[in-house]
Amino acid sequence: MKRLIKYSVVSIVVMVVISLGTLRFFGLEPKDQRPGLWLTGELATEPVNDWSFTDNYGEIHLQTKTPYLMPHSVTVYCASYNGELYLLSAYYTGGTYPEMRSWNRNIVRDPRVRLKIGDQLFDQTVSYVADESIRKPVYETLGEKYPEWERPTFENMHILLVEPPA
């Protein structure tokens, strides 16, 4: 009986390892409103000095690090302002940063992220923007880029600055 239990446990562990390896290789990117796991693509090796090329993308993918060692990826809105890249986390029904979304909590715990823009991957860090002199023009830029969506109130929009990895 002990031998049967041992083989069952080993079989389960092997199946989990194979499944995770397959997911890691093929990725499991977010789709529609569903989150995903690993992002796949070609890793950019040169630093980006001007993020204005992201103006051509409605949404980009963001991968964060979870406390349980599995990545968590989502689609996010973004806007470039003065060559910098900003990400949006909006709370239409109120709420405070970062209590409502797991990717926000992940960023607070570990600001290192991976972005997927087109087919390219960018390893970056993000930081919360509290400076009103930056938040207001970025808020307006986001409104211009996405005129079709209902803008959240300024107070319920959290803006994150994308920076080079630390």
TrEMBL record:
Gene Ontology MF annotations? oxidoreductase activity
* Keyword Transmembrane included in the entry's annotation: yes
Gene3D superfamilies named among the record's database cross-references: Electron Transport, Fmn-binding Protein, Chain A
Query: TM segments?
Result: 7-27
Pfam families given in the database record: F420H2_quin_red
Question: Does this UniProt record's set of keywords contain Transmembrane?
Answer: yes
What the entry lists under InterPro entries is as follows: F420H2_quin_Rdtase (IPR004378), Split_barrel_FMN-bd (IPR012349)
Q: What is this protein called?
A: DUF385 domain-containing protein
User: Which organism is the protein's source?
Assistant: OM182 bacterium MED-G28
Question: What are the leading ranks of the lineage?
Answer: Bacteria, Pseudomonadati, Pseudomonadota, Gammaproteobacteria, OMG group
